[in-house]
Amino acid sequence: KNQVEQSPQSLIILEGKNCTLQCNYTVSPFSNLRWYKQDTGRGPVSLTIMTFSENTKSNGRYTATLDADTKQSSLHITASQLSDSASYICVVSANNDMRFGAGTRLTVKP
Amino acid sequence: GAGVSQSPSNKVTEKGKDVELRCDPISGHTALYWYRQSLGQGLEFLIYFQGNSAPDKSGLPSDRFSAERTGGSVSTLTIQRTQQEDSAVYLCASSLDRGALGNTIYFGEGSWLTVV
Questions:
Q1: Confidence of residue A1 (pLDDT cuts 50, 70, 90)
Q2: Chain B residues with beta carbon closer than 8 angstroms to that of A51
């Protein structure tokens, strides 16, 4: 069983709308959690990195939250743009081991 | 270079042939990772190099897969006797130190391998 579960698997929204992607993990001991954006045919690009003591971190229209008690993270995208269409990957680290979620495929339509 | 560089960007090979994929990490990055991503799937860990330490090869799917990192910089992933199920994007990434310590991990654009 994957130790990092992402939901939904895919999502379609209209341009300008907000959306929230979820990441639940069982990785332990927790070190940090990252969100990556991967455009089709490209390598993943880092959006945020959060450690145990951080509850929220923003990067432009992207805001990640972390609840280390419930082992949940979310990535909120505000005022979506067509260029936000991509896969969003949650990566959780424990010591020197990283576990990747399968990703959420987001499609933003005009 | 400014980022992680991978070559070739695309490779089509016949089943049974050997292939070599190259990764040139960001200068000064001691940690280097190889991942595989099949179409529509998540990233699958293959191998991890950290400085002069013995690599973590726990993700290599079979003995047909091997990787080396010469001089602590450039890495080569070799797949021997390729099979159709080896078709995937092979992504290389690097970071200043162990990724789990919180350093940003930078990915290359990947090498798209198609075995026909």
A1: low
A2: 102
Nearest to A49 among B41, B104, B108 (CB): B104
Among left, alpha and beta (phi > 0; psi -120 to 50; other), residue B110 is left
SS (H, E, C) B15-49: CCCCEEEEEECCCCCCEEEEEEECCCCCEEEEEEE
Dig out the tokens for A20 from the structure: 């929230």
Cβ contacts (< 8 Å) between A31 and chain B: which residues?
A: 100-102
**List of chain A residues whose C-beta atoms are within 8 Å of the C-beta of residue B46:** none
Distances in Å between the alpha carbon of B92 and those of A37, A86, A92, B18, B44? 16, 19, 18, 19, 11
% of residues, chain B, pLDDT over 70: 95
A58 has a pLDDT exceeding 90: yes
Of A51, A95, A100, the CB nearest to B102: A51
Measured in angstroms, the CA of B86 and the nearest CA of chain A are apart by: 17
Average pLDDT over residues A57-72: 95
Closest CA to B32 of B108, B109, B83, B115: B108
What's the mean per-residue pLDDT of chain A?
92
Q: Is the per-residue pLDDT at B83 higher than 60?
A: yes
